[in-house]
Give the backbone structure.
Amino acid sequence: MTDVSYVRTEMLEEKAPPVSQAGIIKWLRDNMFSNIPNSILSIVALWAIYYVLSDVLPWAFQSSWNANSLNECRSAIAAVYGEGASGACWSVIHDRFLQLIFGFYPSELYWRPVVAFLLMFVAIAPVLFDGLPKKMLRFTMIYPFLAFWLLWGGSLWFPLMIIAGFALGYLAFGVVSKMTSSLVGMIAAVLVPILWWLFLSGDVATMLQSIIPLSIESVASDKFGGFMLSITIGVIGISLSLPIGIVLALGRQSDLMIVKVICVGFIEFIRGVPLITLLFVASTLLNYFMPPGTNFDLILRVIIMVTLFASAYMAEVIRGGLAALPKGQYEGADSLGLDFWQSTRLVIMPQALKISIPNIVSSFIGLFKDTTLVSIIGLLDPIGLSTNIRANMEWNGVIWELYGFIALVFWLFCFSMSRYSMYLERKLQTGH
Amino acid sequence: MANAKKKLIVSDEVAIQIENMNKWYGSFHVLKDINLTVYRGERIVVCGPSGSGKSTLIRCVNALEEHQEGKITVDGTHLSSDLKNIDAIRSEVGMCFQHFNLFPHLSILENCTLAPIWVRKIPKKEAEETAMHFLEKVKIPEQADKYPGQLSGGQQQRVAIARSLCMQPRIMLFDEPTSALDPEMIKEVLDTMIELAEEGMTMICVTHEMGFARQVANRVIFMDAGQIVEQNEPEQFFNNPQSERTQLFLSQILGH
């Protein structure tokens, strides 16, 4: 019999894995050539990518940046790359860049939309990321009025009067709900500001303006255009459609018959109508319903329609989230004595919204892209502008470059929204 | 065991009074003419076959279910459809559910402090101290910063008990608290409930844990087909059941 006892006297060093188990070769084997069908698919896909890029890349890079017209562009490209070479005429972007961004906004006032745009990030940062001081939310609250003032200009008293309306509503709620019930208080909180805005605020603003003039040059709505217009409509639509959608979704689940019928009717009506129809209503029909002489800003009308349209979709998205919550969550909150608003705000909504994040962000992205539809009613968003630019003799025939650039900018915005939503989902993950 | 029970004090102060209560789900008559008086400090176990209305009964006590006829008085407050009364009663009556119903988006500590902060308006710091006190009591203070999804079923149910206790309720309702648990976790939850009973909490438990009923309850109620069929002291109830239906039920659940 042999001796089976064994004692190790020296420990083995770690060795590098064989070539087939590390680095690029392993990766290729695992991901692209793991078996014969996969290998075939990989090769076909690589060929397809090569086929597309081999045409697009030379076109994109054999380009001209400094020409003043399409013809100049073509001759410049021909001069460098030889007769018959096709190349992108990026000069049109270079030439019309400011117009694509600002529309016909007066060029000496470009700083105002730029400041408003930059401040927007300051305003949304505390909403998007926690860990920032809570006091920043105060700036978020006044930002809409500040941005309005910066973009449209005019008397500072006007936005201040609108803020005053909210303050009055808050006061009315405090006073009336203490004297009677909270329901009457809520009605007062809605009525008082509306009366104030309709009948008093205009005169008070004019009066204050005559005492202390605080105004910057005002810019009319028809000067708005380009991405500035898309972003203005998109951001207002996005930030209003979420709260309105929440209210509609809750109203749809309400036990109060009238509230429920109104919410269901609104949602089903708005969802059943194409956005473009609503935009036509905004641009043409709405004026017939207004008293003669009222000048209701076209951009404002469009914003209202886009917001209503998006809120109806948002309401259904959030209702989906609400429906996904187990009944036990409502009962758990109820059994602790939380009232309806407390349980909705603290228990139900945070979870329903979290479930709906992917769909909410999809709606946001959809809304932002839908802003291009305003070109059909004559607003000069990037698409509307591109039509105008091409109507110009110099740039007649430029298609890919303009649409490509617009698509790229839209894609950047939409992609960052999508990335943010993924970050948010990861952050809110509380399970295993 | 009998000695342990005698130590528990039952006063003659009424905690819950249910008079001639009837409830229907649509046209289905779930609860028929229920009369029940619970005195302060009582530990009542409600048992019966599934569908007998036992869960519905205790859910009527804190108005999670609405009853159509009869009168329920909790702690002297008449349970009407007035929302203020309902919220007041709910904040005095704690409830634990079969599926815990913890809030998955809040940490354990936040689950426990939510209602004290918002309903009782207790300052956050104080609420957190109370919460930690009760989490220690159910023996999981170290889990305070985790989320419900990271805890085992037994731990979650103990958190649910602590969450209810943070509201300092005078009555606790348990709706099959151990039915969704693995066998080895049942004991830790029952131990917590026994401890609670020994401190004199008024409790109504819907449960199939007959060992718990024998050890802790001072009254066992047997329900079938929406009615209270039999109620008695546990000793009498288990050893000398009177109605045929009870005998059959007991032989089925104690048979193996």
